[in-house]
Amino acid sequence: MKISKKVMWLGAVCFGLCNVSLLSFGAVLPVQQETSLEADTLRDGTLSDSLFYNLPAVEELSANPGVPEQLLRERFSKLEKSIPLTYHKASHEFVEYFIYKKASFTKSMMEKKHLFFPLYEKKLAEHGLPQELKYLSMIESGLNPTVISRAKAGGLWQFMPATGREFGLYQDNYIDERFEPVKATEAACKYLKQLYRIFGDWELALASYNTGPGNVKRAMRRSRGTTFWTIYNSLPRETRSYVPQFVAMAYMMNYGNDHGIFAENPEYQIPNDTIHINGYIDLVAFCNNSGIDFEELGKLNPSITKTILPDRTRDFVLRVPSVRYTHLLSNRSMIMDSCTRKVLPVNAMLAVADSSKKDTLAKVSAFPYAVARTDDFAEEEETEEPISTKTIRKNKKTSHTVRRGETLLSISKKHRVTVAELKQWNGLSKSNIRGGQKLVIMKEVREVVPIETRIASASSKVEKVDKVEKSEKEYEKNGNLKMRYHTVQHGDTLWTISQRYGLAIDQLKKANKIRGNGIKPGQKLIISS
C-alpha cells in the first residue's frame, strides 16, 4: 500500500514513547513544580504536548487505501453514540496508521485497557458523560499513569500542574495526584463536563481539551464556524489531528481484531488492600521487610514520587498487594518499626472497613479490584519520655452518642480506635448503628509521673554507673521505679535489643544518648521501665 510522505513523517515522530520523560515510582529526580500559576489554568493557549505533539494535519489519503472508505463509514455510524464519529480522510489515515505502521501501539492499548477502563466507565457514568471518552486517555498518555510531557503535563489525562491544582489534584515534592488514576479521572470528568457546557458540542470540547477553550474560540472567530470541521483549518496543527486520532482509536478498540491485531497478554489490576499511613515511612525498608516487590508497590501507588513519605503525611491511603496483606497483619509491629520513626502502640489493631458503607476510604478505593479493607498502621504521636519519668497506662471508659450519618468507621477514626474494638466493647455483631445510640469507648490514658533522679555527675564512667545502680536500688525500695539495664553481648544490635524489650530504636537511642547506631560488648544500656 502506498503511504503518503506526511504519514511516513508521522511514523518517525508520532510514537516516540521510549523518549517520553517518565516519572517512575521512587525516581531520583523529583517532579519539577511550577512556581507560578499559568495565565489560564484551563490550558487556554497552551498545547498539551500529548503523545502526538506537533503533528501536521493528515489529509493525503493514498489512492488505494488498505481499508475501504465505505467500510469505515458504516462502522463509524455503528459505533457512534453520544460523540460524533465523523468520517474524514484524516480519521481514515489514522486508522490505517494504527493498523499498518503502529500495530504494536494498538496492541499495547488493547492489552492495557483492562487496567483502567473499569475505572473510567464507572467515573464517566457517575458524571453522566459519554462512555466513549474513555478512549481519550489512550491518545493523551498511552495509558501510562506516570508519563510527563515536555510541557510538564502529567498522568493518564495529561494535566498541567496548575490545571491539576484547579481541579483538586494535590502536588508536592512527594505526592503528585495527577498520577493517581482515581483522582485524575475524577478531575478529567469535571474538566470535560465544564468544556462541554462551554461549547455544547463534543468535538469542540475534545479540541479544547487539547489546545484550551481560548484557542478554540479564536478559531471560531477567525473562521466564523461553529463546528470542529468548519473551524478545522483555523485550529493549531496538533489539534487538527487530535479529534481524528480519537475517532481512529475508538475504531481500533472495537475492530482491531478484524485487522489481525489481538491482545496477546492483557494486563489487569493487581488485587490490593489499603492501609493508612500517618507520618514518616521509608518505602524501600517497608518493601524489604514485608516481602512486597518495590516495583509492584509503585504500580499500585503511582502518585508517590519519592521512596519515602514525610513526617507531615496524614491519612495517605497506601495500596498493597492482597497476597501480602496477611503477612503485614501478622508482622505489623516489626515491619512498621523498621521503616517509621514513631512508636507503634501496643494495642494497635487492624481496622477492617465496612465495605457496605459510603465512607472516605471507600471512595479512595474505587480502583478496580481494590478491596475495601484498611488498617491505620499509623501510630499515635507519642512524645518520647525523658529518663527521669515513668508512664502509667490506664483504661478509661467514655461514651459516644451516635449522630445522624455517622458509621462505625467514622466513629473509630474520631476516637482513634478500631471498628473491631467498637464492636467488642458494645457487643455488636453487625455494623448497623442508629442515631442517638450510645456507644462505649475505652480510652487508654497515659500519665507521665516525674521521678527525682539522684544521678550526680562523676569523674569516671565506673563512678557514674555505681551511682545509677545506687539510685535504682533506692527507687526500687521506695516503689517508685524499677530501672532495667541491658549489658550488650557479642552480636547484639540496637534492633535486636529493641525487639527483645519491645522498644523503638529511637527511644532506646535517646534514653542512652546514642547518636549513631554503634554499640559495643560490655556497654550498659538503660531500658525503660
Structure report:
The chain has 4 domains: 5-22 and 39-54 and 68-259, Lysozyme, CATH 1.10.530; 272-364, no CATH class; 389-450, Roll (Membrane-bound Lytic Murein Transglycosylase D, Chain A), CATH 3.10.350.10; 461-527, Membrane-bound Lytic Murein Transglycosylase D, Chain A (Roll). Helix content is 40%, strand content 10%. The chain is built from 20 helices and 10 strands. The strands form 5 sheets. It has a two-stranded antiparallel ribbon with strand order 1-2. It starts with a helix and ends with a strand. 36% of the residues are buried.
Describe the structure using short key phrases:
529 residues, alpha+beta, Lysozyme, Membrane-bound Lytic Murein Transglycosylase D, Chain A, two-stranded antiparallel sheet, 20 helices, 10 strands, 40% helix
Topology:
Blueprint: H1 5-13, E1 21-22, H2 69-79, H3 89-101, H4 103-126, H5 136-141, E2 147-148, H6 161-166, H7 181-199, H8 202-211, H9 213-223, H10 237-255, E3 272-277, E4 281-282, H11 283-290, H12 294-300, E5 308-309, E6 316-321, H13 325-330, H14 332-339, H15 360-364, E7 389-401, H16 408-415, H17 419-426, E8 438-450, H18 461-478, E9 484-487, H19 494-501, H20 505-511, E10 524-527
Antiparallel strand pairs: 1-2, 3-6, 4-5, 7-8, 9-10
Helix pairs in contact: 3-4, 3-10, 4-7, 7-8, 8-9, 8-10, 11-14
